[in-house]
Specification:
heterodimer, A: 224 residues, MetI-like fold, 79% helix, flat, B: 246 residues, Rossmann fold, six-stranded mixed β-sheet, four-stranded antiparallel β-sheet, 9 helices, 10 strands
Chain lengths: 224, 246
């Protein structure tokens, strides 16, 4: 190997890259909650909606779960301006993440709705619970617990997925590595640092989720 | 006047399959009435219809002479205030520990004083032998323990009549007795109960009256001695003969 590592030059960029990591975090955070909102309505529609609603939601889910996120991002990026809608690269990516993860979360959440034990609700009914009380004391806590682990996994997966934004010039972590690598040619060093930052972010996020999961939902999960 | 009077109760599934066919039963205060019969005879359905989980097609259910109107939410609610049911599959709330399973309905639904309810719940759980499992969740308890929590939960609602729907059928054989013992304690306290069970020895020991059902109909009603030792109908003789042979 003829490559000479020059870490010094790369380490200077750490603060700049950390700024990118921060953008990565809030891109994934906002994207996750937008997707979760879409997923919630999607799952509700699929579980309780009429045949037309179910069909529309199915088309949406099939489209986004069977096309690469990068392709739909380009689709939005080049497609929307044709309709006179101009979005910044950041918002294009955010919209893409929301729509993409909304499709996945529709299916994940539907699983949660379906898994509610009818017999538990029957017991609640004989004990005098109204539908609203069943929802509050039995259904929602059950769904929250069932969905916690798959949604946590999905969030981690999304953090990594935001790297795609770099292609559209969004200055998140990977995007900033693009910038500096082009200027300094210290690609290996910079990507090594970025990889370390991604690992640190996901471990941090996982740890926080594990603590929340154990404390609030009695979900016994581990970081590793 | 009987405490609970069921008269000509008829019910169907999907409007087609007749599962209860003119069932009449009386339960007096402090009595323990057991319902036996082969699978599919409508025993469990009878309890479900009484609790309002399945609407009857015809017939009446009267409580102290007052007829329950199953089409009226208020009337059904009033009935559920006075009855509790324990299910074959326990049906505990998985997201709550044993104590909260017992306290939630009295506190959140009946709006009784939380501290008093909790004290009572701890006593009830102690009574069914689970004083050391107050903060265990259903998935940390054995089937027998879960069923005893379910019994405590039903009792916390202070029912006038307790319905037990095959409460030991889903249990491993060695766990059956701990649940039966809990029911024996209730019997000693004078609890009015309607019991659907396949535990014939237990039914014989505890029942004031035994009802044999088949194909949605009451075949024979009598004392435990009559039903088990001297059944009058051939269908009952046949059934009792089969079950007592092993």
């Amino acid at each position: 190997m003829n490559y000479t590592f020059q870490w010094g030059e790369a380490f200077i960029e750490v603060p700049y890259l950390l700024g990118g990591a921060w953008i990565t975090l809030h891109l994934s955070f906002i994207g996750f909650w937008s997707g979760a909102t879409i997923g919630l309505f999607g799952a509700l529609g699929k579980t309780y909606g009429g045949p037309v609603t179910v069909k529309l939601i199915n088309w949406y889910v099939i489209f986004f779960t069977n096309t690469p996120g990068l392709v739909t991002a380009f689709f939005i990026f080049f497609g929307l301006p044709e309709f006179g809608i101009l979005l910044s690269p950041y918002h294009t990516i955010l919209l893409n993440i929301a729509l993409n993860s909304g499709a996945y979360m529709t299916e994940i959440m539907r699983g949660g709705f379906v898994s509610v034990h009818k017999t538990e609700l029957e017991a609640a009914e004989t004990m005098g619970f109204t539908l609203l009380q069943q929802l509050r004391y039995v259904i929602v806590p059950h769904i929250a617990k069932v969905l916690f682990a798959p949604l946590s996994n999905w969030y981690i997966w999304m953090i990594l997925g935001t790297a795609m934004a770099a292609i559209f010039g969004v200055e998140e972590l990977t995007g900033r590595v693009f910038n500096r690598a082009a200027e300094t040619f210290r690609s290996i060093e910079l990507y090594t640092i970025a990889a370390g930052m991604y690992v640190a972010i996901t471990i941090l996020a996982s740890s926080i989720l594990v603590v929340i999961g154990r404390w609030a939902f009695r979900v016994k999960v581990k970081v590793f | 006047m009987h405490h609970l009077e069921v008269d000509g109760l008829t019910a169907t599934y999907d409007g087609k399959i007749l599962v209860l066919d003119g069932v009449s039963i009386q339960v007096g205060k402090g009595e323990i009435v057991s319902v036996i019969g082969p699978s599919g005879s409508g025993k469990s359905t009878l309890l479900r219809v009484i609790m309002g989980l399945l609407k009857p097609k015809a017939g009446h259910v009267k409580l102290d002479g007052d007829e329950v109107d199953y089409g009226n939410k208020k009337s059904v609610k009033a009935l559920r205030d006075r009855f509790s049911i324990v299910f074959q599959q326990f049906n505990l709330f998985q997201n709550m520990d044993a104590l909260r399973n017992v306290t939630i309905a009295p506190v959140k639904i009946r709006k009784r004083d939380a501290q008093k309810v909790e004290k009572e719940a701890i006593e009830l759980l102690g009574k069914v032998g689970l004083g050391d499992k107050l903060h265990s969740y259903p998935d940390e308890l054995s089937g027998g323990q879960q069923q005893r929590v379910a019994i405590a939960r039903a009792l916390a609602l202070r029912p006038e009549i307790l319905l037990l729907d095959e409460v030991t059928s889903a249990l491993d054989p060695e766990l059956v007795n701990e649940v039966l013992d809990a029911i024996r304690i209730l019997a000693k306290d004078g609890m009015t109960m309607m019991i659907v069970s396949h535990e014939m020895g237990f039914v014989r020991e505890i029942s004031t009256e035994v009802i044999m059902m088949d194909e949605g109909k009451v075949i024979e009603v009598g004392s435990a001695e009559q039903i088990f030792d001297n059944p009058q109908t051939s269908r009952c003789q046949d059934f009792v003969g089969k079950i007592l042979r092993h």
